[in-house]
Amino acid sequence: MKIFDLIIIGAGPAGLSAGIYAGRAMLDTLIIEKDLEGGQILQTSEIENYPGSLDIESGPTLIDRMVEQVKKFGVNKVTDTVVDVSLDGEIKVIKCEKETYHAKTIIIAGGAAAVPIGVEGEDKFRGRGLSYCATCDGPFFRNLNVYVVGGGDSAVQEAIYLTRFAKKVTIIHRRQELRAAKSLQEKAFKNEKIDFILDTVLKKITGGDVIEGMILENIKNGNITEIKADPDDGTFGVFGFVGYKPKSDLYTGKLSTENGYIITDEDMRTNIPGVFAVGDIRKKSLRQVVTAVADGAIAAVQTEKYLEEMA
């Protein structure tokens, strides 16, 4: 039975960063990824806030370089889907659809995903005017109109943030009242750049290469409203904040979590020895590629220390 020093579950920025550091440390490492390397960042056409990215950087170009680094350091990778995990004991067991793998340590880098708005045109315009991250994509909508779908804390917080860049921000919410904390609501109501369309749902996003229009429906009277981009702008932005879900179902009841996010300490350690969690799947205050790669580096270094103590 083959026993790896380390298995990394997920090959987004956090998992790849962990792989780079683990490979440099000469740990016998396996990365398991069910899809393409990169995760959510593959949907990002431009990255301008990652340190050192002076020229136009995209999610795919950044991930391509990280993947090459992982290969350079001799890290193994398989494409498989994890269906169950056994994390207790000195040897961890990762059961996948194709094979079962064993390791002394595990780094969980499964990530998280924005809950889709659930409207016609969503798949077409994702990354082409439709975003789920104001911090990531807000600067690309300077002096444009922006619409935020949602009424909770995240939606209102991100709407306030987007006023730094947008010409006008309009919150679209299906209820008459927002669900966000009263303090956040007060800030939004006082902000002259924020408008509200309540009792309304987004039904369809339209356009060619970018968003050019959308259709709204008032849920009380059924009235349909079509919104078109300002002719001088040619487009507008739509941000979806109807929820965010960590990909942590496999670990429910096995690791300490809060609202589905895995709880770790500052060294990425979970409540089970030898098991670490990194990136968007763990409880943290900022989910960005720069914090994901930092998580991965920390976890890999701590994994090496853990293995040394086991020896």
From TrEMBL:
Catalytic activity, per the record? [thioredoxin]-dithiol + NADP(+) = [thioredoxin]-disulfide + NADPH + H(+)
Gene Ontology, cellular component aspect:
cytoplasm
Q: Which family does it belong to?
A: Belongs to the class-II pyridine nucleotide-disulfide oxidoreductase family.
Stored InterPro entries: FAD/NAD-bd_sf, FAD/NAD-binding_dom, Ferredoxin-NADP_redctase_2, Pyr_nucl-diS_OxRdtase_2_AS, Thioredox_Rdtase
Write down the PANTHER family for this protein, in alphabetical order. Answer: THIOREDOXIN REDUCTASE 1-RELATED-RELATED (PTHR48105)
Tagged with keyword Disulfide bond: yes
Can you quote the record's cofactor note?
Binds 1 FAD per subunit.
Question: GO terms for biological process?
Answer: removal of superoxide radicals
MF terms (GO), sorted A to Z = thioredoxin-disulfide reductase (NADPH) activity
Self-association and partners: Homodimer.
**Which cofactors, if any, are listed as required?**
FAD
* Source organism of the structure: Sinanaerobacter chloroacetimidivorans
Q: Does the keyword Disulfide bond apply?
A: yes
Which Pfam families is this protein grouped with? Pyr_redox_2 (PF07992)
EC numbers for this chain:
1.8.1.9
What gene is behind this protein? Answer: trxB
Q: What are the UniProt keywords, alphabetically? A: Disulfide bond, FAD, Flavoprotein, NADP, Oxidoreductase, Redox-active center
Q: Which domain of life is it from?
A: Bacteria
Protein name per the record: Thioredoxin reductase
